[in-house]
Write a structure and sequence with these properties.
Strand order of the largest sheet: 3-8-5-6-7-4
Number of domains: 3
Distance between the termini: 90 Å
Number of strands: 23
Mean pLDDT: 77
Strand content: 25-35%
Helix content: 10-25%
């Protein structure tokens, strides 16, 4: 009896009674795709989330500079003119001003003329001008004589009398001497305060096997770093590199110094001195510690009717800037909600003289500012340039923090002074102009650790081991220097 065969059950098939298309009529690559029917394939990959990179903030407002130590130290000069507060136990009956420390008392010299403003006591809000006649530094006392009455207290018979509970704000405004005398007067030396930060090591790695590295795909891929082709690992490696670049910036924003013993054990270098601790001071930590935090918001329910709240927020910023360095040009990096609120404010008040700015930071070109994503406005003697900050908006980055952070409120923006400031560089031994915000990275003639990339394994033409894979390594050792942090402000809501 002849052997029976089913259609398509083995290699020696019997032709079917009719012409038809079956899956076993054609070669199959185990994917279920019949080779006769080629799909309409879009070769270009779709980036459904657009440009996903978050970095760029530091490149706009800062700079980078090499360092060759475990620590960077800088000194910031104090104010030229100072006002200090007396202690509550002032010896008013004897015309003595008692200060809280010897250092405060040393700010005054014989024959200084001083304005006293009463902040606590029976004559709160009243002021009087006095002449310094004696100084007892050891007891933090300064003896004065009023210009307009015999004594400070009620016994002087003056219109303004101060009680023993009086607390003053004291400000030197000059001096006065009698004719024909020589003077012995101590020089006031500049007041410096030192700050420091240390770099941290940030690392990442990408790996692809030799087989996958040699595998071509159907779809042409593109990456954030400009790479393209039909090898999928090009996309994966480029994305890893882009993510690492984001980490470099995000770490400089969010990092904090380690204070717990456990973290010091894990992250410490084991060396001596300040370089043995883990962590570093990022931007947000620096502003929280030495700058300003505003809980005011440009966005308010009253904006739709009056916009007065918006203006009040701007004016409160001006007051704080006046009390600090009075830097004329400032950058505002805001989240979407705050940025739109400022737009509403500017639209409400118009672009009149009160809000016109010269765009000096952008070579006096409004077009340049707009091309870079900035809108400028002027209030008082200050220019502000505001823009959206993608880091605060991205829903997979800080923008995902919708419920507030640690009970302090979510960061909704940051104000950064533009330009440079003068600081005393302890390494160089002189005053130097540096950007308020800049990155320091480890580098020497032996090794530059700004951004190191190297390949290990046996794939990619660089054979370093018998590993049948390509390992792409990324490393950076860096820290952020936030100088004159008193001119910075964090907005929280």
């Amino acid at each position: 009896m002849a052997q029976e065969f089913s259609v398509g059950t083995n290699l020696n098939v019997v032709p079917g009674p009719m012409q038809q298309t079956l899956e076993n009529n054609f070669l199959d690559f185990s994917t279920g795709w019949a080779q006769q029917y080629l799909p309409e394939l879009y070769e270009a990959e779709v980036e459904r989330y657009g440009n996903r990179m978050l970095s760029g903030f530091l490149s706009k407002v800062g700079a980078e500079e090499a360092m060759m130590s475990d620590q960077v130290v800088w000194s910031e000069q104090g104010r030229l003119h100072l006002s200090v507060t007396t202690a509550a136990t002032a010896d008013i009956a004897n015309d003595n001003l008692t200060f809280g420390s010897v250092a405060d008392a040393k700010l005054f010299r014989l024959n200084d003329t001083v304005l006293l403003y009463c902040t606590v006591g029976t004559s709160i809000g009243k002021s009087i001008k006095v002449l310094v006649t004696a100084i007892d530094h050891d007891n933090s006392k300064v003896k004065v004589i009023p210009y307009t009455q015999a004594t400070l207290d009620a016994s002087g018979g003056g219109a303004i009398t101060f009680g023993t509970d009086s607390v003053f704000r004291a400000m030197v405004y000059g001096s006065e001497f009698k004719k024909g005398v020589s003077i012995t007067r101590e020089a006031l030396t500049p007041q410096f305060k030192s700050f420091n930060n240390k770099p941290i090591i940030i690392r990442d790695k990408f790996q692809v096997s030799g087989s996958d590295a040699a595998q071509i795909g159907w779809v042409e891929v593109t990456g954030e770093e400009g790479q393209n082709g039909y090898l999928w690992y090009l996309k994966a490696e480029g994305d890893t590199r882009a993510r690492f670049n984001d980490y470099l910036e995000m770490a400089m924003l969010e990092a904090e110094r380690a204070t717990g013993a456990q973290l010091d054990t894990v992250l410490g270098t084991g060396g001596s001195g300040t370089g043995a601790e883990g962590g570093t001071e990022g931007l947000f930590a620096a502003i929280t510690d030495r700058g300003h935090i505003s809980l005011d918001t440009f966005n308010s329910a009253t904006n739709s009717t009056s916009n007065h709240v918006d203006m009040a927020v701007v004016d409160s910023i001006l007051v704080k800037l006046d009390a600090e360095g009075a830097i004329e040009e400032n950058m505002l990096y805001l989240d979407r909600t705050e940025n739109l609120a400022v737009d509403n404010m500017l639209g409400f008040f118009g672009s009149g003289v009160a809000f016109a700015t010269g765009y000096g930071l952008f070579d006096n070109s409004e077009e340049m500012a707009l091309n870079l994503g900035f809108t400028g406005f002027r209030r008082g003697s200050y220019d502000f340039y505001k823009t959206d900050w993608k880091y605060l908006n991205d829903k997979m980055a800080y923008g995902s923090m919708t419920g507030g952070l640690t009970g302090e409120g979510k960061i909704s923006g940051v104000l950064c002074p533009a330009g440079t400031t003068s600081v005393y560089d302890e390494t160089m031994g002189k005053n130097m102009k540096r950007p308020f915000l800049h990155v320091r990275y480890r580098a020497s003639n032996t090794d530059n650790r700004r951004l190191k990339t190297w390949i290990t394994g046996s794939v990619g033409g660089n054979i370093t081991s018998d590993l049948d894979a390509m390992q792409v390594n990324y490393l950076s050792e860096r820290c952020l220097v936030t100088q004159a942090a008193n001119n910075f402000m964090l907005f929280k809501r």
